[in-house]
Amino acid sequence: MVKHRSLYFWKILKNRKGFTMTEVVVVLSLIGIMTAISVPSYFSWLPKHRLQTSVRQIYDDMQLAKIRAVKDNINAYITFSTVNGTYFVFLDDGAVDGTYNIGDTVLRNNATLENGVNITVANTCGFNNRGMSTTAGLRQVFLANPTGSMRIDVNTAGNISIVTL
Description:
Blueprint lengths: L1 H13 L6 H52 L3 E6 L4 E6 L13 E8 L5 E5 L2 E3 L11 E7 L2 E7 L5 E5 L1
């Protein structure tokens, strides 16, 4: 008779559905602790990620200008505005003078950067039909936010590189 009663007890436990209040409180406490640990590190990581994303965006657009200059056999330029933090990329196929004129083909217009990222110093960068820089010497674009700053360099040979400062 005792064995029968103990089997009946396990059947009762086996047929129970749901969670006890203790189990729910333990799980919610663990989720709260993990959130308290991860949220501050996420917010300290986010500005650095935004800076890196903006630098990569400009780097990619410089590569686009370089490739299109070679493909279309014409000079391509990327000009920056440090006032509002925008830039645009164009092919100089109108009046070939290195500045944007009506009739030039625009590849990217008023491209904006991530929130909190500013263009501190920037030189107009251009590429000729051989993929080389249109100006002698090093052209640089500096981007900064509260977490730090990064730089994009374009040398005379047209090589583009990213430098963390």
